[in-house]
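Please, structure for the following, as tokens.
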Amino acid sequence: MTIDEALQEATFTLVGVCENPARVAKILLMHHLNVNIEWVFLNLKKELEKKSEYFDLISRFKSYEPLEYITGVSSFYGLEFNTRKGVLIPRPETEILVDKSLEILKKFKKSKVCEIGAGSGIISICLALKTDAIITATDINEKALQLAYENAVKFGVADRIEFVCCSYMDSVLGEFDMIVSNPPYIKNSYNLDKFVLNEPKEALFGGDIGDEILKNIILIAKKRKIKFIACEMGYDQKASLSDTLNLSGYEAKFYQDLAGFDRGFVARLKL
């Protein structure tokens, strides 16, 4: 079987599983052969090596295993992060949260930042690459923290980020200038896409309403008198979080994602 024939068969197999089966077939082929797209187009008539292994990858995707888990990488903020099953896959909309956080951190020198729910470490690492901030990153998932540390080493910022396994900031002492978080914010009853169902539930569901963890983060920030909060949130949570922020003494600005949905906020402690 030639590479061209394998791509055609794989594409046909994936019809109905995703929006662009031809693209997925090519990505998995490149991963299988460890080559780029130019090589693929120049070698379409070549016999495919280890054909069964390639179609094993196709079968995994057809069973709704996310592409990022199969390839082991995710693109985020122009960088390629290691990705692993059991850890939330980075989403493009979270790049906006990074941008909003950077706008705040420009006001500080050697700021102290705590990221709650670090996952694969993408936010903390991007902030460390762009600022001189000293960062503490927490998560309840030890597997996630191991991956986050691995990514921090990959990008040369492991000495700037302390990784702590705990809930919220329970084991973190000291003063901080900002909390940043992309916490679980989906309500428990929400029906998820079949691919998303293969991601860790504790990184997705935020409670019966969905905004419970976000509200706890705001209350923690208030108690510890943290000047700034930057968080991602659900599209329908602006009203409830606005009330909580206001009652907690924070002045907030909400932002939208590229689809026009409310997606997060940055808040400043009122003087």
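The mean pLDDT is 96. Residues 3-63 form one domain.
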